[in-house]
Amino acid sequence: MGFPLFSYFLCFLLFFPNFSMQSSRRASVIRLPNGDSYGHPFDPTRVTQISWHPRAFLYRNFLTDAECDHLIQLAKDKLEKSMVADNESGQSIESEVRTSSGMFLNKAQDEVVAGVESRISAWTFLPVENGESMQILHYENGQKYEPHWDYFHDKANQALGGHRIATVLMYLSNVQKGGETVFPESEIKESQPKANEDWSECAKRGYAVKPRKGDALLFFSLHPNATTDVLSLHGSCPVIEGEKWSATKWIHVRNFDKSGSTSDDECKDENVNCPVWAAAGECKKNPVYMVGSGEGVGYCRKSCKVC
Ligand SMILES: *[C@@H]1O[C@H](CO)[C@@H](O)[C@H](O)[C@H]1NC(C)=O
Ligand SMILES: *[C@@H]1O[C@H](CO)[C@@H](O)[C@H](O)[C@H]1NC(C)=O
């Protein structure tokens, strides 16, 4: 059986004398703009689709062990009690709903963080600038995050980059027991086999993902038509044994970097092509992008003369 294959290979070498074993190594299908020599190459074959309602995907070994350890190291001494956003005002408040501790890294804080951020971007097809800075979370015995949505209920938080469209949750440690990510409303929660494995009671209440060092979970908080997906409800089950470290990247529908500034009040264009587009009548034809809507300000307000 091996012989015909081998002779085929010989013919191949005959016709393609420049072929070398080097070029036959499987390379990443997506080339990252600034290289990414620290982690694994981006490899979409390691992604499995978990469910469509909500849209959720699991990427095995998204991070190397070294990357996980590095992210924990960066956070270790800077943890503070995690907060939640108040439903009405959007202010950060403490809540019994969320008992972990955590901290935010800076975007592209070092080469490892920048590498992970560009890999997330390649995986989600969403630009790096739409992401918030990464949050590192630590859950000890009994700590949890009750089921919640990642999209905001208040208007103040949506002004910054619009709704959160997607979340990438990276597991930085293994957890002996508990600490699963659970989707209580997932349409496939009944069909997940739970008999043979060591799931916590909390995990049995929905579709659950076991935290495994290096794995990453991607789920979408918005439907493809940009309305909020109530099925994206998810929580972090209480840690029963061991401790849980995770990193979260929230990604918005618009640029999140520029929103920290007071650009809402400033009269300027966000794109060099704005004057040309405005002259071509785009302010009228494409007002949401050019001028803005209730959801946020547009990109060519100066050229459209609305400020
Ligand atoms: C916020 O509002 C949601 C939906 O109305 C509700 O389920 C949740 O309990 C509220 N959270 C807080 C902290 O008030
Ligand atoms: C958006 O898509 C969701 C899911 O397919 C659907 O339930 C909802 O009715 C749609 N909303 C609009 C306004 O099209």
From TrEMBL:
Domain Fe2OG dioxygenase: 130-253
InterPro entries with a match to the protein in the record: Oxoglu/Fe-dep_dioxygenase_dom, P4HA-like, Pro_4_hyd_alph, Pro_4_hyd_alph_FE2OG_OXY, ShKT_dom
E.C. no: 1.14.11.2
Reported cofactor(s): L-ascorbate
GO annotation, cellular component aspect: endoplasmic reticulum; endoplasmic reticulum membrane
UniProt-annotated location(s): Endoplasmic reticulum membrane
Catalytic activity: L-prolyl-[collagen] + 2-oxoglutarate + O2 = trans-4-hydroxy-L-prolyl-[collagen] + succinate + CO2
Leader sequence segment: 1-22
Keywords: Dioxygenase, Endoplasmic reticulum, Glycoprotein, Iron, Membrane, Metal-binding, Oxidoreductase, Signal, Signal-anchor, Transmembrane, Transmembrane helix
The keyword Iron is annotated on this UniProt entry: yes
One Pfam family per UniProt: ShK
Family the entry assigns: Belongs to the P4HA family.
Annotated protein name in UniProt: procollagen-proline 4-dioxygenase
Native source organism of the sequence: Helianthus annuus
